[in-house]
Specification:
DNA binding; about 50% helix; transcription; binds zinc ion; nucleus; ALOG_dom; ALOG
Length: about 160
């Protein structure tokens, strides 16, 4: 998926509301995300059955996804810290944009219940996930990542399978 400057790509959930004409895109993305997560659980040693999946597995999954991230988040010691468009490369890590993670959690949360999970046990609805996402958002806001990177992020989950 190569978009140039689509604005709301990272926010999959709101995008879905704004464009009722293309609900299938949200649905297929949700299915892909759900499969990716299922695969992730299967690859754990030992594999984690969905019935035993809890919020710490979800948090580990989110951290695991960072290795596929494309959003530069400057660390506090970086000379470009606070600059949205650094004039030169630096060694700060690439991360998943928080907006992408937030939209991903929204899709997985829905998928979990569509696949037989109950709202009471939904690990994606756990308060610790919201806390984690808030921390990521604040951290990335301080590092002033380039917002246009978000668009590339949205494709991450599709490409890495
Ligand atoms: Zn940097």
């Amino acid at each position: 998926m190569s978009r140039e400057r689509g604005k709301d790509v990272a926010e999959g959930s709101s995008e879905n509301q704004q464009q009722p004409a293309t609900p299938s895109r949200y649905e297929s993305q949700k299915r892909r995300d759900w499969n990716t997560f299922g695969q992730y659980l299967k690859n754990q040693r030992p594999p984690v059955p969905l019935s035993q999946c809890n919020s710490s597995h979800v948090l580990e999954f989110l951290r695991y996804l960072d290795q596929f991230g494309k959003t530069k988040v400057h660390l506090q010691g970086c000379m470009f810290y606070g600059q949205p468009e650094p004039p030169a490369p630096c060694t700060c890590p690439l991360r998943q944009a928080w907006g992408s993670l937030d939209a991903l959690i929204g899709r997985l949360r829905a998928a979990y219940e569509e696949n037989g999970g109950t709202p009471e046990t939904n690990p994606f609805a756990n308060a610790s996930i919201r806390v984690y996402l808030r921390e990521v958002r604040d951290y990335q806001a301080k590092g002033k990542r380039d917002p246009t990177q978000e668009e590339k992020e949205a494709a991450d989950f599709e490409q890495k399978e």
